Amino acid sequence: DIDYIYESLMNTAVDIDSLEADSHLDEVWIKEVIKMAGMKLKWSKLKQEKVRENKDAVKRPQADPALLTPRFPVVTIMGHVDHGKTTLLDKLRKTQVAAMEAGGITQHIGAFLVSLPSGEKITFLDTPGHAAFSAMRARGAQVTDIVILVVAADDGVMKQTVESIQHAKDAQVSSSALFLTLSLSVPIVLAINKCDKPEADPEKVKKELLAYDVVCEDYGGDVQAVHVSALTGDNMMALAEATVALAEMLELKADPTGPVEGTVIESFTDKGRGPVTTAIIQRGTLRKGSILVAGKSWAKVRLMFDENGKTINEAYPSMPVGIVGWRDLPSAGDEILEVESEPRARQVVDWRKYEQEQEKNKESLKLIEEKRKEHQEAHRKAREKYGTLHWKERSLIKYKEKKQQQPLKLKERVERESNVLPIIIKGDVDGSVEALLDIMDTYDASHECELELVHFGVGDISENDVNLAETFHGVIYGFNVNAANVIQQSAAKKGVKIKLHKIIYRLIEDLQEELSSRLPCNV
Ligand code: GDP
Description:
Residues 70-253 form the Tr-type G domain. With 523 residues, the chain is of the alpha/beta class. Helices cover 41% and strands 21% of the residues. The two termini are 42 Å apart. It binds guanosine-5'-diphosphate.
């Protein structure tokens, strides 16, 4: 039955109840093994065959071009530290809030939408810097259409300016093959900031950027450069318009029909509303009641809101939206996919968790494989030696053998030789005591320190066990049994160690430690 357990573990999930009750390895042990192998008991309850065909949520195939409709751009602001990214974002956001009649309370949701007087719209991701950008890229998420590169006109091109350019250039490498032939990079709009400063030198910035293949229009390239001041708000509209102009050239489109696809921008826990995410919708239209999965979480959309905290009923491609209704917190960069039902969402999430645990427990599986070999060997040897003899009879045989080899009384040997470890074994049932004796058999011969079984049996630790242990300076090992308080106290008074375990291999490990601590030579 050991084989049965292990095989089951390796291949599929185990239904604990179906395992034989009189297994050599008790249920606690089996559960532990299952845990180590990363098997979720819950998973075994799912209909495996059904899931195996269709275990994860997947993206739909590319949309029929006829279904595509124009969408507005999603923009990330990047640049060197202190060059004005935050100030620029604040100014852009405030322009918008001021333009709105009921300027609600601005909420930081990781992205916001700006509507221009012309009716055009831009979504800005407001996690400046490339940390967030790289985190998303590492997950293969591609939400940004345009990068606004901020360079301070007094400072010029700096280290993180160059890194930002690099990020923008690499950005689409992992993206859809369709775009590979067109471009490998996210196009840039250059915002030369701090132009209000007397020492500002925008021309120097443009010249410096030539070295990094960012060629402004003045130099015959296609990068639009806008001279701005985030501090005074000067030329903000020109920057927005340059962005819109670029977006028009890109002919950004998306399919607003069918199940939703999107990307998590931020996630946080709100005291009242629980786990909340901000997402950019990339396909389909999100509505209340939609069932979503993202990472290892799922949601039934209870509420959607915009960056002003206003409830919204629908979110289209390119729109940033706050989503309430998640069971757990997904991570930034996680792909959001709509599924058809709650049971399906649970199935997908369970599958993903299971897969992750499998990954995490590859090491544990190795350990289990070792233990399995060890235990099989122990059983084999014991069978060879004792056949079908009951453990009580065979222990008697063993005892007699020992007696012949070691005529000296155990008590005397213990007192004379330090490398003898007298032990008392108590187990809850016949099977567990037998399994322990089998395993101990293999240690008997191979160790310098000798295990001396003083007594063994089924049942809780008794006063008699404690007395025996005291007499022989032994240690009591209990597997799945108890020691009453009075017994524990008595043992403590007599200086007797009682070690209780519920997992066989832990008990064996403990025993090995005890053995090595008694080895005579400590170099
Ligand atoms: P970030 O690190 O790129 O987000 O830069 P911040 O937005 O925090 O700006 C850094 C500093 O530069 C702050 O003290 C800003 O007030 C200042 N700053 C930002 N934009 C301008 C600008 O257009 N003109 C001037 N004079 N100072 C600016």
